[in-house]
Write a structure and sequence with these properties.
This protein is an alpha/beta fold. It has 9 helices and 14 strands. The strands form 4 sheets. Strands 2-10-9-8-5-3-4 form a 7-stranded mixed beta sheet, with helices on both faces. Strands 11-12-14 form a 3-stranded antiparallel beta sheet, covered by helices on one side. The longest helix is centred in the last third of the chain and has 21 residues, at 257-277. The chain binds pyridoxal-5'-phosphate (PLP).
Length: 358
């Protein structure tokens, strides 16, 4: 049977070698004759997994001293409500940038905790660009933005410069490129876009920025409680942490984030080039803000939709349908997607144009 080319936006493609190791550990972990899924998270063997996962995050992203790395439950969506509890002072105010569905969810949840000032938005043009050059009031407790807008296909290629603490949802582009962690007070990401299976949420947080809000924070929402217990305040999502650890090891072998960035750029360039030159298609977002991870595009003539969809199905291409709120197509090209899958898609797009006399 031919290979499936997996452009799923999330949960996403993982390296074959990682899936094989994960499968083996589900049956017999560390030679214990027990499944990883049926041993204590406090066992020496699992504690070693958690430690290795946290160490790999620090190593791959160059996380400086003074930051804690946590693997929590509840997805990035739970961080939308957790982070304002930890950083929005009683009577304070936070600045948010509205660049899409996830950013709006973060704004909504933040508003349940305190005052939110939406300092920039691209909603006027259906989130097809990244706002730039906006003012950030100096008295806000933090600035929150979403580095990659998974649904619309835009990405911050340069981060906002400000003296206020910066908090970033990097769910769909973390580990896709080098970042300077020291510029951020907190970074978070659901595992299932570029790191592992759903279930774990990565939080990287500056320790000395915590404990200043004057709030009573419920324990499960309190980063300091999780830090104190080394990310084991309660039962962690063991399988997701394990598979994330394997993926991060794979990334290290690959050469780390600067090497994967080159591969990701090559994939994105190949596809965007085709979108721009193929008369059947067009991109939907501002060129300079195009995401390296999620490329969105549409057919110039929607009458051809059924035919193109059939070609995708025949080619065993998975996950290319755009998000239900946007339509069109979205090719998610996360770290583990090989260039050959993008080339395969490009070949189909060219064959489709050929059938229409182009
Ligand atoms: C998918 C996604 C989320 C939501 O993640 P969950 O883990 O499902 O809560 C949040 N932010 C961004 C940028 C995403 O891509």
């Amino acid at each position: 049977m031919s290979k499936v080319h997996n452009f799923s936006a999330g949960p996403c493609i993982l390296p074959d070698s990682v899936l094989k190791q994960a499968g083996a550990a589900a049956l017999n972990f560390d030679g214990l004759d027990l499944s990883l899924l049926e041993i204590s998270h406090r066992s020496r063997n699992f504690v070693a997994v958690m430690e290795k996962a946290r160490r790999l995050v620090k190593e791959l992203l160059g996380v400086p001293d003074g930051y804690s790395v946590l693997f929590l439950q509840g997805g990035a969506s739970t961080q939308f409500i957790t982070l304002p509890h930890n950083f929005l002072k009683e009577g304070g105010k936070a600045a948010y940038v509205s660049t899409g569905t996830w950013a709006k969810n973060a704004i909504k949840e933040g508003g349940l905790v305190g005052e939110i000032d939406v300092v920039a938005s691209s909603e006027d043009k259906n989130f097809t660009y990244i706002p730039k050059g906006f003012q950030i009031p100096p008295d806000v407790d933090y600035l929150h933005f979403t580095s990659n807008n998974t649904i619309y296909g835009t990405e911050f290629h340069e981060f906002p410069e400000t003296d206020v603490p910066i908090i970033c949802d990097m769910s769909s582009d973390i580990f896709s490129r080098p970042i300077d962690v020291s510029k951020f007070t907190m970074i978070y990401a659901g595992a299932q876009k570029n790191m592992g299976p759903a279930g774990a949420t990565l939080v990287i947080v500056r320790e000395d920025a915590l404990g200043h809000t004057g709030r009573n924070i419920p324990s499960m929402l309190d980063y300091q409680a999780h830090i104190k217990k080394e990310s084991m305040f309660n039962t962690p999502p063991v399988f997701s942490v394990y598979v994330s650890m394997l993926t991060l090891s794979w990334l290290k072998e690959f050469g780390g984030v600067s090497e994967i960035e080159k591969a990701n750029k090559a994939k994105a360039e190949l596809l965007y080039n085709e979108i721009d030159n193929n008369p059947m298609f067009r991109g939907v977002v501002a060129e300079e803000d195009r995401s390296i991870m999620n490329a969105t595009f549409v057919l110039n003539d929607s009458a051809n939709e059924e035919e193109f969809n059939q070609m995708l199905a025949d080619g065993r291409i998975n996950g290319l349908k755009g998000h239900r709120s946007v339509g069109g197509y979205r090719a998610s090209m996360y770290n583990a997607l090989p260039l050959e899958s993008v080339q395969f898609l490009v070949d189909i797009m060219q064959a489709f144009a050929g059938k229409h006399g182009n």
